[in-house]
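Hi U.,

Before I forget, here's the chain from the pilot set. I'm dumping it here mostly so it's searchable later in email.
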Amino acid sequence: MSNATTREKVWLITGCSTGLGRALATQTIDAGYRVAVTARNIRSVENLVGGRERVAAYALDITDAMSVDTAVREVTSHFGQVDVLVNNAGIGYFSAMEESNDAAVRHMFDVNVFGLCSVVKAVLPGMRKRRSGHIVNVASAGGIVAFPGVGYYNATKWAVFGLTEALQKEVAPLGIRVTVVAPSGLRVRSTSDAEHFALAPIQNDDYAETVGAMRRSLLESFGNQPGDPEQAARAIVQAVEDAGSPFRLFLGKAAINYARQRSRELCDDAKAWEAVGLAVDFEDAEDERLT
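Structure:
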């Protein structure tokens, strides 16, 4: 089945219990794809199966190597292969850099970065063998620009951008497509969605006007974010179905504006001290470009 027809493709989606992951699961199921829905607690996604033969639910803790290997092996055994991986599972921990809890920060990196990588590594052997497949890593608009009180979360999503770009260059010659998705402000519809995010209290008044203001903004936006998870899911499905879709998929007005802002800032900074930067190279050095 190396050239699976569109509706015969097998989707493996992580983090399907709530939010974007659940919206993606519902839309791919309704579209007639074969879908492996996953969550740490399998009971939270079993109702997505609904007796359908083309859908199966699996327990998957992406921070547990054995859980990842077992889930991917079971999905492959049941469906035959994984054609599309959507790495959606993620959490957020927000605090001032100085005031952060090390254990909470490390756990977030384990989920958002290392867990994501574990699932990618588990599906790649099959994709390489078939010379086909599509890996979709969900980052965030917070991987484009950074904010006070959000730095560690920003760092995890920056890492997803960098790792995914490197991966795309590694596997493109093997017939494997890669997409990184940067949504902004997807609406939280339930308290279970919000449980994936933690806002640490401010300990020092020095951060009241920066971290404190951001914390208030995040709390006030709860349930009122502009982004529709259903529309975001629809855009991701469209990107997978369209061979001409871009590597970086920015979803939401804020994400698109942040991308434009970052592009301008990089160009402005490079130009401002261009002479200083260029003077660092030896005069006989060749023009080096990383492509």
